[in-house]
Design goal:
The chain is built from 9 helices and 8 strands. A hairpin with an 8-residue loop joins strand 7 and strand 8. It is globular, with a radius of gyration of 18 Å.
C-alpha cells in the first residue's frame, strides 16, 4: 500500500512558503483554531494556509485543538470548525485533537457530540490522539478515522488507524524550523470518488431530513463508507464495490 507524505501545521510555523513546500508533500492538515467558537481563538495563519493550499491544489484537511470539558464546549468547538471551513473543499477529514491534560474524563462522549455535528454538516470526521490516549482514554471509539501520534521509527499502536504522526522534528523546504510529519495510507482522491462520497453523504442526510431514513443509521452508514474506502488501492476498486453492493442502493436514491 502506498503512503502519502503529509504535514500538519499551525500559526507556530509562521508564514509558510507553500510554493516551495508543494513539491515535497502530498497533503497537509491545517489547524483552524483551538477551543470554543471565539474569533480570537482562530489560528492566525488558518485563512492564508487554506487559501494557499487551495490556490496550489494541495489536498488538505483540518484539525482543532480541543480544550472541551463539557458537552456544550464540544458543540462550540464543532461550530468553531464549521464556521472556518465554510467555502473550502476539504480532501481529508476534520480532526478533533485530543491531548489536553485534564480533559480525559468524558472525552469519548464529547468526541461523539463533536462528530455528530461535523457529520450532520456533511463532512468526514476524525480524531487525533497519542498512543496513551488511544489505549487508556479512547478505547472503543471506533466510529471515526484515527490519527495516531507516536514519535518513533514504527507505530506500535495495535488498533486500526489511517494516519501516523511520527515526528515533530521534520524539515520541509518553505517552512522555517521544525514541522510535524505524518504518513497517511493512500486514500483514493480522484474526483469521481470524492463526488461519489459527497453525493452519498448528502443524499443520506436529505433522506433523514425527509423522514425516509432512520437517523440512527448515520453511524453505521459512515462506518460502511469508511470500510469501503479502505478496500483496494485504486478508485476503480472503490467504485465497483460501491456500485455492486446492493445494501448501498438506498443511499444513491435522490427522492
Amino acid at each position: 500500500m502506498a503512503n502519502l507524505r503529509v504535514i500538519d501545521v499551525s500559526e507556530h510555523q509562521g508564514t509558510i512558503n507553500w510554493d516551495a513546500v508543494k513539491g515535497h508533500i502530498d497533503g497537509a492538515i491545517l489547524r483552524c483554531g483551538y477551543g470554543d467558537n471565539i474569533v480570537s481563538q482562530d489560528d492566525k495563519q488558518w485563512k492564508r494556509n487554506a487559501d494557499e493550499c487551495t490556490r496550489l491544489g494541495i489536498p488538505f484537511g483540518v484539525y482543532i485543538y480541543s480544550y472541551a470539558t463539557s458537552d456544550s464546549q464540544a458543540r462550540s468547538e464543532a461550530e468553531h470548525v464549521l464556521r472556518l471551513v465554510s467555502g473550502y473543499k476539504l480532501s481529508y477529514p476534520i480532526y478533533l485533537d485530543l491531548e489536553q491534560a485534564e480533559t480525559e474524563k468524558g472525552a469519548i462522549q464529547r468526541a461523539n457530540i463533536f462528530g455528530n455535528i461535523i457529520e450532520k454538516a456533511g463532512y468526514w470526521c476524525g480524531v487525533y490522539a497519542n498512543t496513551n490516549w488511544w489505549t487508556n482514554y479512547l478505547v472503543g471509539l471506533e466510529r471515526f478515522v484515527k490519527w495516531v501520534a507516536q514519535y518513533n521509527s514504527v507505530c506500535t499502536y495495535k488498533g486500526t488507524y489511517d494516519i501516523w504522526q511520527y515526528t515533530s522534528g521534520g524539515s520541509v523546504p518553505g517552512i522555517s524550523g521544525n514541522v510535524d510529519m505524518d504518513i497517511k495510507e493512500l486514500m483514493r482522491q480522484k474526483e469521481d470518488i470524492m463526488q461519489l462520497d459527497e453525493k452519498m453523504r448528502k443524499n443520506h442526510i436529505a433522506r433523514v431530513g425527509k423522514g425516509k431514513c432512520d437517523s440512527k443509521l448515520t453511524i453505521p452508514f459512515n462506518d460502511v463508507l469508511h470500510n469501503i474506502d479502505r478496500i483496494g488501492n485504486s478508485c476503480v476498486n472503490l467504485v465497483e464495490v460501491a456500485k455492486e453492493n446492493v445494501t448501498m442502493q438506498a443511499f444513491f436514491a435522490e427522492d
